[in-house]
Structures are given as C-alpha cells and as structure tokens.
Amino acid sequence: MDARSILAKKRDKQELSTDEIDFLISRYVAGDVPDYQMAAFLMAVYLNGMTPAETFALTSRMIASGRRARFDDLDRPTVDKHSTGGVGDKISLILAPLAAVCGAAVPMMSGRSLEHSGGTLDKLEAIPGYRTDLSLEEFQRQVREIGVAITGQTAEMVPADKKLYALRDATATVASVPLVTGSILSKKTAEGIQALVLDVKVGSGAFFKDSDGARALARSLLTVAEKLGLSAVALLTDMSQPLGRTVGNWVEVEESVEVLRGGGPADVVEVTLELTARMLTLTGLASDVSSAREQAERSLRDGSAWRKFLEMVRAQGGDTAVLENPSRYPRPKYQLEVKAPRSGSVRRVDALGVGVAALELGAGRKQIEDVVDPLAGVRLLKIAGEAVQAGEPVAVLQTSQREDALPVAEKMVLAAYEFADEPPTARELVLGEMRPGD
Ligand code: URA
C-alpha cells in the first residue's frame, strides 16, 4: 500500500477500504505522508465525496489517532454542542458555562477559524493567558472539578484533526460533508461525551449554504454519531446574517460577556437558549424544551453562568480582570467607520461579506503560518431592521496589523449591507430540527 495509489483511487471516484483510510491517516499523523499528498487527497475527497462507510472509517481513524477522555464515574451527564461554522458565532463561549450551571458536564473540544468563519479557540485565545492546549489529564480534572473546559486538539488528543483542520483551511477544502463529519465527530467522541447537540448552519455564512446541503450534512453527522454511540440531535439555524453585532476575536469575547451578564443581542441569546435547552433535554436534565429554556434563562439572569465562565477562564490560566473590565484591553491600532450610502432601513447584512472582511483584517488565516490578530474584526453598529441616515456609520472596521486591508474590507462590508425604505420581516433563527433517521 502506498499514498499515491490511494490518492489515485479517490481521484478516480473509487471507494477506499478501511485499511487504505487507516494507512493514509495514520501515516500522515506520523509525518510519513507529506502535506502535499494529503492536500491532494483532501481535494479529491472535496470533489468526489465519500460513501457513508468511508466517512465512518475516516472518523474512526481520526478518533484513534489520539487518546480519549473518560468520565465514566461522573455523577452528571456529559454533553456538548458543536457548530458547523459561522460568522459572529460566539455561542460556545456562553453555552458551555451555562449548560454546566444547569447540571451538565461540558468537556468541549473546539476548533479555530476556518476560511471566513470564526473559531472558538481563536476567540478564547484573545483572553490573555487562556490556554487551549490542556493535556488529557488537565482536561479531565477540570471537567470533574468545575463541570466545564474548552480546549483544542493537541498532539495527544485528536492529532489527526489538528493537522487536517489547518490543511483544509489553507487548501479551500473545508466545505465537504465527509471532512466536516470526521472533523467534528472525532473531536466530540474523543471528549468522552454521551450526548451531542449539532448546530448546523444554513445561509451565506455557512459552508453549506442552502437547506438541502445543510440537511445532507446534518444527516451525515447524525448517522455517524449514532454509529459511534452518541445520542444526538441537530438544529438547523440561520447563518445568512452574522450572529450579534461583532465579528472577530476579542470583539466577540466582549459581546459574549454582555450576554453572560444578562444583556447582549437578542439573536445570540435566542440561539444560545435553544441549543442549551436541547442539551438539557437530550440528557434528561430537563423534561421539555420550554422548562429547559426557563432554567437556562434564569442562569443567565442571576449571574451564575457568568461566574462559571470566569471560573473556567481562571482554571485555564486566563486573565479575568479584562473580562470584568473590558476597557483595560488594548485598543486596535487602526479603525475605520463604514458610512451608509443612503437613508432608510437596514434590510439585511450578508454574513459571508462580513466574514470575509474580518478575515482580510486579520481575524483568521489565509495560510497555515498566519498569526491571528485578536483585535481584528468588525463591529456592526446597525443591523437588520434598524433605521439609518445617509452618511451615518453602520459599522466599524478594526485591525492592529493590516492597515492596508481597511479599504478593501470597507468595500466588502458596504456590499454586505442592503438598505430599503421599509424594515424587513422578523428573522427566523431556528429553521428546523433533525434526529437520526430523518
Ligand atoms: N467545525 C469543525 O470542528 N470542523 C469543521 O470541519 C467545521 C466546523
């Protein structure tokens, strides 16, 4: 068996055996298959897809590339949520401590930004000192002691996803059903959870933009999750517009803090409550979605989720002083206001346009070596439904490293705004729910 013949087989649309997938992934993780061959394989999978059997073999091999957490002796159910990637999607930062104070144990392994979409790890790393490279022992201990941890893949835990994730980001091969399935479910299985809520995004800012594509992804995720013994449910949620008013890293941490302190944008609160409620019902911590929502809402209002977030950040080495007082955080070096070209009402703000602008400003990576700028991003001063006067600022662009990107990002954000005489109809945030077999 050799890598080139496996690539040729996938290129020619033939089904790979489990042995061939095992060989390729394990040799890649060991460093014996170089990035250029793996990049070619990823593109072949992106173009030709994988059968359900191949997808399951890929996911299983990725899980087996590292060690797995175990929480057998815990007196609380273990549950997590994972999103398929969006713009302004800071839900994990709020939901993980929130579900923990509602009685769940949340061992969350997240990802970094991918193409135009944000990444929970990049956001958390904007907090000075926050560690996303916990060892398996540290991760298990923290979940046992405080009920929640958010960390990343390491050389010890799911190293296959760590390497493949960065390579997919740099080779335009993210939006592939089998590759997303393997990436998400390898991390989720290695966490040692019993139940999983999938937030499958639909709309321009998602990797699968239309409902049919998003449903196909949800089906693949649910089928493989079931085979791996995870109890799972998927919510299809709107990603045609950014979530909240911020897109970037530190700006999204700040907005998450607002929500954790009982305020923040209504759309972020709504999607957080819907997903948290599914985590609580799936694990039997609540008997129905409406009582679960009430419990979660109370924990946002009474400050307990906010205190749990601070406890988690402290446990992972992060500086909580800047969270308690965000004005202590450094300011971006360069800022630019984007002004409304006309008066009227904001009809829509396109998620992809804003996500790509944030990437240009330095919030994500175009190449594996790129270093993320924690201060880069976009603040949306006006969102759908709000009135605006010609010449009034609708958004602020910020960056500390890419002053040259401001004019191009300005054009992108202006193009993302649609104005009209009348306000739009209300945005539907939850578009559907799917279970295994749907
Ligand atoms: N999130 C992940 O962890 N992996 C993907 O491929 C997409 C979203």
What does this structure look like?
By secondary structure, the chain is of the alpha/beta class. 45% of the residues lie in helices and 15% in strands. The strands form four sheets. A four-stranded mixed sheet has the order 1-4-5-13, with helices on both faces. Strand 4, helix 10 (211-227) and strand 5 form a beta-alpha-beta unit. The structure holds uracil (URA). Uracil is lined by residues 84-85, 111, 114, 174, 180, 183-184, 187. Uracil binds next to helix 9.
List keywords for this structure.
about 450 residues, 13 strands, binds uracil, Pyrimidine Nucleoside Phosphorylase, Chain A, domain 2, Transferase, Pyrimidine Nucleoside Phosphorylase, Chain A, domain 3, globular, 17 helices, Aldehyde Oxidoreductase, domain 3, 3 domains, 4-stranded mixed sheet, alpha/beta, 4-stranded antiparallel sheet
Q: In a nutshell, what does this entry contain?
A:
The chain has 17 helices and 13 strands.
Task: Note the topology.
Blueprint: H1 3-11, H2 18-30, H3 35-48, H4 52-64, E1 79-83, H5 91-101, E2 106-109, H6 120-124, H7 136-146, E3 148-151, H8 159-170, H9 177-190, E4 195-202, H10 211-227, E5 231-238, E6 246-248, H11 250-260, H12 266-282, H13 289-301, H14 304-315, H15 321-324, E7 334-339, E8 344-349, H16 351-361, E9 377-380, E10 387-388, E11 393-399, H17 406-416, E12 417-420, E13 430-434
Parallel strand pairs: 1-4, 2-3, 4-5
Antiparallel strand pairs: 5-13, 6-9, 7-11, 8-10, 8-12, 9-11
Bound molecules: uracil.
